[in-house]
Amino acid sequence: MEPKPAPARVRILDAAHELMLTVGLARTTTKEIARAAGCSEAALYKHFESKEEVFIRVLTERLPRLAPLLHALAAEPGRHTLEHNLTEIARQAALFYEQSFPIAASLYAETQLKRRHDDAMRELESGPHKPIEWLDAYLRAEQSTGRVAPDADTFAAASLLLGACAQRAFAYDATQDGVRPPVDDFAARLARTLLGGISVAGESPGPTP
User: Fold this and answer.
1) Exposure string (b/e) for 190-206, b if CB count within 10 Å is 16 or more?
2) For residue range 9-54, what is the model confidence (pLDDT) as tens digits?
3) pTM for this one?
């Protein structure tokens, strides 16, 4: 007995993810996504309003789950240690940017397309600034529990951590070996360094191995 085919929405996201990785977001059309998914373009639009929405759903449902982690931590501050939480955030963020950068990079080569996508992101209340806002919200929640220093600039701290994770996605391609820093070690070192600037007594980072 042959297995049932995956639902159309699943096939569409799988096809979109593959196309965006191989040909880039700018060159991926809804027609090509539908063809690769084995459905009509009209069927695609029954599930998604636009290519931009498909892109957002690929980011949130096919890449490392950064947003759910940040939301869960902000909703329940005080769980685990700050170092543990920031390390896991940095690890997930590094993996997220590593996988999303090749998809979105082609947008920056076409100004009008980039502007259209930016407009769509605003309408859908999404965009690359959102993880910074979510991490800022988590750090402010920890600030309210007393685990982050009251005078710490949480927005700057969030920008520093996520900016470093995004930078890892492309900054090492031109090195002699072209190898990115291993994600677990990178995340741990980043979290410890950030903690040195925002933590209070008793939440100081451990020694660097």
Assistant:
1) bbbebbeebbbeebebe
2) 999 999 999 999 888 888 899 999 999 999 999 999 999 998 889 9
3) 0.82
Rounded Cα gap, residues 135 and 192, in angstroms: 16
* Bridge partners (DSSP) listed for residue 32: none
| Distance from the first to the final alpha carbon of the chain | 54
CA angle 26, 112, 173 (to 5 degrees): 50
Pull the structure tokens for residue 143: 């600030």
Distance CA 34, CA 8 (A): 9
